[in-house]
Design goal:
Blueprint: E1 8-14, E2 20-25, E3 32-36, E4 40-45, E5 50-56, E6 62-67, E7 73-78, E8 83-87, E9 93-97, E10 104-109, E11 115-120, E12 125-129, E13 139-141, E14 148-153, E15 157-162, E16 166-171, E17 176-181, E18 186-191, E19 197-202, E20 206-211, E21 217-222, E22 233-235, E23 241-245, E24 250-255, E25 261-266, E26 275-278, E27 284-289, E28 292-297
């Protein structure tokens, strides 16, 4: 079933943040966050090109942020080594966590948003109890030998990718860690919606699809250029297509099964697309290139 996706630009957000380091849909896809080199986070309604709020309090570039499951809080990580918990409505920082020795590259909530998990250039992953007043991490994972580039969290697992060419899956229920050597720097790791596969963006300009349980390589996707950028990947809402940005300013869509490229979107010719975020349940995609974010969508089919 090779359906044509044919996405087109719905809105273009001029973020005015110098460079957008990350763009993220919130949990239901109604809003999005942009993290900037201007040390700020912005909350948008991307469908109306509406800036709702700006959050300032970090002392350096904001590298990642995510909204809580009820969209009442934001947690962010920055090159200033800190993690900040924000109140969405007031825009105020509620807590500032300082446990990392270097830039915080990636951050996620657990499913109930009771815990924040952050990865850093200091090779560690820290767990923060955001419900209590505790300032120290509840737990620190120190298995990686180099920068943590991304992390994903499910109800009982944490998946990390690292510059040390490994992915690590932590099963929190049984207290085990499974490490896989990929052979190349892994710039981003994500999971398919059914939880059965990893999608790994590698620095050799490939994306690799692995079976999570067996560790078997199922497919490789090529055509985009990584160069020296930490590119992100995504999977669409139906688990039918893998999506990645490219140093060439294009967005690639590949069929998950056949690995053929079914569509290329041009965001900004020769300006790298470093961050992207797919809507959780609908056919919308956000892409960030330099200081601009585009919302892509498919025309609604007549019933």
């Amino acid at each position: 079933m090779n359906e044509k996706l044919l996405l087109s630009t719905v809105e273009t957000l001029a973020c005015k943040q110098q460079v957008v380091r990350a763009v993220r849909f919130n949990v239901d896809g109604a809003y999005c966050l942009t993290c900037g080199a201007d040390k700020k986070i912005k909350l948008w309604n991307p469908y109306n090109n509406l800036l709702l709020k700006t959050y300032g309090g970090h002392a350096n570039e904001v590298l990642d942020a995510v909204g809580s499951c009820d969209s009442s809080h934001i947690i962010s990580g920055s090159a200033d080594k800190s993690v900040i918990l924000w109140d969405v409505t007031t825009g105020q920082p509620l807590r500032r966590y300082r446990g990392h020795a270097s830039s915080v590259t990636c951050i996620k909530y657990n499913e109930e948003s009771t815990m924040a998990i952050s990865g850093s250039i200091d090779n560690t992953v820290c767990f923060w109890d955001v419900m209590s007043r505790r300032q120290e991490p509840v737990q620190i994972l120190k298995d990686a030998k180099d920068t943590i580039t991304s992390l994903q969290v499910t109800d009982h697992e944490v998946l990390t990718s690292s510059v040390d060419c490994h992915t690590r899956l932590y099963d929190l229920r049984v207290g085990k860690m499974f490490s896989d050597y990929i052979g190349h720097v892994v710039t981003f790791a994500s999971l398919t919606h059914d939880g059965q596969c990893y999608i790994l963006s590698c620095a050799d300009s490939t994306i690799k699809l692995f079976d999570k349980d067996s560790g078997e390589l199922l497919n490789t996707f090529t055509g985009h250029e990584s160069k020296d950028y930490l590119l992100e990947n995504a999977v669409n809402e139906k688990d039918s297509h893998i999506i990645s940005g490219s140093a060439s300013g294009e967005v690639f869509y590949w069929d998950l099964v056949s690995s053929t490229c079914t569509q290329k979107l041009v965001h900004n010719k020769n300006k790298p697309i470093v961050s992207l975020s797919h809507h959780p349940t609908d056919n919308y995609l956000l892409t960030a290139s330099e200081d601009e974010v585009k919302l892509w969508g498919a025309p609604k089919m007549e019933e």
